[in-house]
Specification:
The complex is a heterodimer. In chain A, 60% of the residues lie in helices and 0% in strands. Chain A is an all-alpha fold. Chain B has a four-stranded parallel β-sheet with strand order 2-1-3-4. In chain B, strands 6-5-7-8 form a four-stranded parallel β-sheet, with helices on both faces. The radius of gyration of chain B is 18 Å and the shape is globular. The longest helix of chain B has 17 residues. The chains are: A mainly alpha, B alpha/beta. Chains A and B meet through helix 9, helix 12, helix 16, helix 17 and helix 18 of A and helix 2, helix 3, helix 4, helix 5 and helix 6 of B.
Amino acid sequence: MEYLSNILFAIVLVAGIGFFTKNVLRLSRNIKLGKDVDVSDNKPQRWKNMAKIALGQTKMVVRPVAGFLHIIVYAGFIIINLEVLEIIIDGLFGTHRIFASLGSVYNLLIGSFEILALLVIVAVVIFWIRRNIIRIKRFVNPEMNGWPKNDGNIILYIELVLMTLFLTMNAADYQLQLLDVPHYAKAGAFPVSQFIASLFSDMSISSLIVLERTAWWLHIIGILCFLNYLYYSKHLHILLAFPNTYYGSLEPKGKLNNLEAITKEVKLMMDPSADPFAAPAEDDSVPEKFGASDVKDLSWVQLLNAYTCTECGRCTSSCPANLTGKKLSPRKIMMDTRDRLEEVGKNIDANKGVFVDDGRQLLGDYITKEELWACTTCNACVEECPVSISPLSIIQDMRRYLVMEQSAAPVELNNMMSNIENNGAPWPYNQMDRLNWVEE
Amino acid sequence: MSNDKLRVPTMGQCMAEGRKPEVLFWVGSAGSFDDRAKKITRAFVKILNKANVDFAVLGTEESCTGDVAKRAGNEFLFQMQALMNIEVLNGYGIKKIVTCDPHSYNCLKNEYPGLGGVYDVIHHTQFIQDLINSGKLNVTGSLYKGKRITFHDPCYLGRANNEYDAPREVLKKTDANIIEMKRNKQTALCCGAGGAQMFKEPEKGDKDVNVLRTEDALRTKPNIIATGCPYCITMMTDGVKNKEKEDIVKVMDIAEIIATAEEL
């Protein structure tokens, strides 16, 4: 019986991490459904981008209020999680505050965790007010109705509960330390929880121990639950922001990739020595589909983008189309891509590892033509994203599908394109008149 | 603007004379055909003439870069245009290109190299800045002294290629009072023409993008809305008309401002 709690703890820990691992594998399988793309270039610059943008939060602070509050929560979670290490060791080996032997360093650590925890609570409350009371526009766009809105709030509630449990645990511990209870050796500094502890001054030692143990257990179970909530939530960004900023584009934002398969065909067309009646080269591969109509046509980096998106809506709040009441919302493009990818993933799971055509696709069933054609390709969404997501690249790939596979461009654009084909300008003017401006 | 004859050699003429100009001026389709944009083209050539720049144009050998087709999703048409243009450009051994159109600039600079067209591509605001800095062009006129000018960043010069300073530095030389809009540089709002929108009706919404952007600009109480893109010029001019302010607010390209400042 002596080791019951240790065994129980080990079971909870293994289950929590095991389930999380299962979801990570599913996540990685889904992302790999995307087309391969070479992102092995310029590693030093990629590490630098990750350090600056994800670790250093440089793009978050472009909007100072949200950026500052976010840094608090971010730092809080990274730093307070050092405490989780101690909790795991204590839980497995039945020790209590194993790092207490660090002495004054330990006091400093626990003290700063407490202050951070308090700041996190303040930040989380402000975040909640921004979402639910002030209702800042980017949090109440139509695509946020339902689950996305609840998801945002659930995350805030979990963070609030976790921080409260952490402080309650420390407060009970502190009170027990004051009462010289054995096993609760004097360790740590409690600049915040000492005030909570004063509320507990009338409690008996046994109830204090129950309180301390309950808070301790709920805290670690809560953390494991939160870890497993990530996969079902927009909150995955706390992990994926790092690879996503690493794999983010290093090119000037204006550069749109050239499709190589098309280069080959165009070169062949333009080659005067090519025999138009020649038998096709012995290449029995399926002709490549141009552009994207479903998630599998996108690159794995674009799919990683979709899982990384935390739906902050900075993109949408800067999108000229969205600002003028058009349906396009770059955030929705990312949310749709993720939702469809999840649907495809579940289809694969349900059909023993093979995707069975479900008659649905990203284009049409999730993203409409109207949204795609409203984009001005201005790169405001790409510029705004704090974690290097490019909604524009998905929009462009889907336009390519519409135009090259379906000839489904708006009629005015078809006119413009036939002008280019016929006379080398988007307007119906003769190429021979190109120099007329000199004499006018 | 005075109507002194412009000196506009073509690459063909230069080749016949056995000389190689230092820089090719890529006029672009808008600059060649759009009545408003042609004025920008002429203004820029006046600057080139005044600074004795050894340049030439392709003239009737120039064709659409294909940029707008690419943005619309027609990669085939883009690459056809690009490969044809690259053949002409490489045939003349062109090394350096200047253009007044940020869309051509972006396309030639970023998308042609992958297809075999590698050039040093410069936007005309950068080129004018270089001319001023190297002393080849002096801006001494006081026509714009104290005038309130706000600069609208073209997306394909600014966000797309990170050039925010050159047009502003050039404007400063006119002693104008430069006032920034609230959304400027990285956060500048698009004029609404990009991504092939120039050639189609906008989707259903509650406002046109160019009107929203013009409101941004008008809030600075400008005498002049300056920009560096022929499409932005069209959109902002329409926006100003929509707000019935065309009598008091002018929309001008940087090249026009410099050319008129010098009474070229």
